[in-house]
Design goal:
two-stranded antiparallel sheet, 11 strands, alpha/beta, Nucleotidyltransferase, domain 5, 3 domains
Length: about 375
């Protein structure tokens, strides 16, 4: 641009030729001046002053003095930057500094009493399960979307699933999420994708079984145990453990449910299947880096009458006495661990019940709090008794 101007072209013509503003051409021509172009410093310069003005020491002294006086004598008990600016004696000390300047003075001189919020990094995926947090195994999370109604049609519920590490989602719209619909959905997903080491659910009766009876091992739990996946039940009224799946539930509603008009349940199922297929195709690279899964044998079949054998995990929060409610019983854990998270691991049919302390701030530390004996009653060992 400068060479073109020196060759005789006008500033406006050069600006039009290089598609820049006239001010840009004027700035670089002024930078070059009468020097040879190879001797001009073309390095860009930030528009900041070389020296930064600092508040005078006597003003800082007045700010600190007034703060101490307000702290000792103020009837309102206010002695922050706004109060100092409001009570500043302008006649004696001159015009007051700006509120932000007063705040910076207080911060620089260490006169602030409040502590800054410490933002800690989020715990790893599945931090409450050490093997999942370490990335050696995967966990499938399952939930349901309720309250959807087709125009002139039935109420719709959607059974959803998501792998924490593989990231591959699933969605099964139907007229209701029941155990009879959950069982084939789980088997179909695990035959296609493989069985994860853990399968996480909330505490709905279609997943866990009826709540009015003690020592109940529902069919979904029995399916997981027979397939070789440890069922995990998230804590009541604590959605953070299902945050990744809740995020997918929101995306599914935005990209499938709210995006199109669905004339029937079959049309919704077709649209959802297309979305899931596209999501699986996009997530191929992430799924390839996820932990390996165990493949179901071709001849494997679920038998709900078999004795439930294996490990169950319940994520719970202790009450005001340090107890935990699960399997229809209240187990005392630790009277010093009140209203805190624990991971309860029980081995069926007659293994121990162990309680481990959980803290999001230190997810790597999960000490054993207590171990008690638990045995599944004989009447609950076979489904239907």
């Amino acid at each position: 641009m400068v060479a073109a101007v020196h060759a005789g072209q006008s500033l406006r013509a050069v600006a039009r030729s290089f598609r820049v503003s006239l001010r840009t051409v004027q700035r670089w021509v002024a930078r070059a001046g009468q020097q040879r172009l190879d001797r001009v410093d073309w390095a860009d310069q930030a528009p900041i002053p070389h020296t930064v003005a600092r508040t005078a020491p006597d003003v800082e002294y007045h700010v600190l003095t007034l703060r101490q006086g307000l702290r000792d004598t103020s009837a309102l008990g206010e002695y922050g930057a706004v109060a100092i600016h409001r009570e500043w004696p302008a006649i004696t000390w001159g015009p007051p500094p700006a509120v932000r300047t007063i705040g910076r003075i207080l911060e620089r001189r260490g006169a602030l009493e409040g502590s800054r919020r410490i933002r800690r990094p989020a715990p790893p995926r599945g931090w409450y399960l050490p093997a999942v947090a370490a990335g050696t195994v995967d966990c499938d999370c399952f939930d349901s979307i309720e309250g959807l109604v087709l125009q002139g049609g039935p109420q719709i519920e959607v059974f959803t699933g998501l792998a924490l590490h593989a990231g591959l989602p699933d969605a099964w719209p139907s007229t209701g999420v029941t155990t009879a619909r959950v069982l084939p959905a789980l088997q179909g997903r695990w035959r296609a994708l493989g069985v994860p080491a853990f399968a996480q659910f909330d505490n709905a009766t279609c997943f866990q079984g009826p709540h009015q009876f003690a020592d109940v091992v529902g069919q979904v739990t029995r399916l997981c145990l027979q397939a070789g996946s440890v069922p995990v039940f998230a804590p009541v009224k604590d959605p953070s453990f299902q945050a990744a799946l809740e995020n997918f539930n929101g995306r599914w509603q935005a990209k499938v449910w709210h995006r199109f008009h669905h004339g029937s349940l079959r049309a919704l199922q077709a649209r959802s299947a297309a979305y899931i297929a596209a999501a699986w195709q996009r997530g191929t690279a992430r799924a390839a880096e996820a932990p390996a899964r165990r493949q179901l044998p071709a001849a494997w079949q679920f038998d709900p009458t078999l004795l439930p054998c294996g490990r169950l995990i319940y994520l719970r929060r202790t009450d005001d006495r340090g107890g935990v409610s699960l399997l229809g019983h209240v187990f005392p854990v630790d009277r010093h661990w009140l209203h805190r998270l624990v991971r309860a691991e029980v081995t069926l049919p007659g293994g121990p019940l162990r309680f481990f302390a959980l803290r999001r701030r230190t997810p790597e530390s999960q000490p054993l709090l207590r171990e008690v004996h638990y045995e599944l009653p004989e009447r609950r060992r076979v489904l239907g008794r």
